[in-house]
Amino acid sequence: NAGVTQTPKFRVLKTGQSMTLLCAQDMNHEYMYWYRQDPGMGLRLIHYSVGEGTTAKGEVPDGYNVSRLKKQNFLLGLESAAPSQTSVYFCASSDTGTTVEAFFGQGTRLTVV
Amino acid sequence: SQQGEEDPQALSIQEGENATMNCSYKTSINNLQWYRQNSGRGLVHLILIRSNEREKHSGRLRVTLDTSKKSSSLLITASRAADTASYFCATAPNAGNNRKLIWGLGTSLAVNP
């Protein structure tokens, strides 16, 4: 049982480049989340989804887009990367939202130079 | 915005000692969750305590919840070097939007052999 899998694990981008982070879960969860984690700032929610075909903005959505075309996948896109987007990105999923535990991926460390 | 605040920010103890971390929050909650994050890894769920519960145990972990004081504590007994990690509390709001957890900034625990 893989749980939540993120790809890639590491990436270096140049300013202005684009990329997509993939999150896949095999637990048939409805809810999926993208967070970023920066030193001293804890976890901040970027976007989330409450089911296939739905997305919603979190605390820090600017500069990111997401898509949930399939229930098991949640994609996070950076259209034009900026150094401020250097961070560790975590995907998480849960069965019924916040009333139960969330399962996290191992993270993607992104550096924008 | 961060609702949970962990205290202390950092804690260093000797193996075998107990470690206590506290979390305070501001609004009415459905539940409060504790997670552990080892360095460079994703978050792992430890315990979920609901608003009508006062105490929960899981192995060497004991969590208490005082809704009148809007606070929770995580006690790790007989600590081990492997308990070295960051510990985060997350609260699930009670009313309205139950889709997003609100995260604290974490307590960094170092257990010295």
Features:
heterodimer; A: mainly beta; 4-stranded antiparallel sheet; 11 strands; B: 113 residues; mainly beta; 5-stranded antiparallel sheet; 0% helix; 57% strand
How does this model look, in words?
The complex is a heterodimer of chains A (113) and B (113). In chain A, 0% of the residues lie in helices and 51% in strands. Chain A has 113 residues and is an all-beta fold. The radius of gyration of chain A is 13 Å and the shape is globular. Chain B is an all-beta fold. In chain B, the strands form 2 sheets. In chain B, strands 2, 4, 5, 9, 10 and 11 form a 6-stranded mixed β-sheet that branches. A 5-stranded antiparallel β-sheet of chain B has the order 1-3-8-7-6, with no helix packed on it. In chain B, a hairpin with a 2-residue loop joins strand 6 and strand 7. Chain B is globular, with a radius of gyration of 14 Å. The model of chain B has no long low-confidence stretch (mean pLDDT 92). Chains A and B meet through strand 5 and strand 10 of A and strand 4, strand 5 and strand 9 of B.
Task: Walk me through the topology.
The complex is a heterodimer of chains A (113) and B (113).
Chain A: E1 4-7, E2 10-13, E3 19-25, E4 31-38, E5 42-49, E6 56-57, E7 64-67, E8 73-78, E9 87-94, E10 103-104, E11 108-112
Parallel strand pairs in A: 2-11
Antiparallel strand pairs in A: 1-3, 3-8, 4-5, 4-9, 5-6, 7-8, 9-10, 9-11
Chain B: E1 5-7, E2 10-14, E3 19-24, E4 29-37, E5 43-50, E6 55-58, E7 61-66, E8 71-76, E9 85-93, E10 102-103, E11 107-112
Parallel strand pairs in B: 2-11
Antiparallel strand pairs in B: 1-3, 3-8, 4-5, 4-9, 6-7, 7-8, 9-10, 9-11
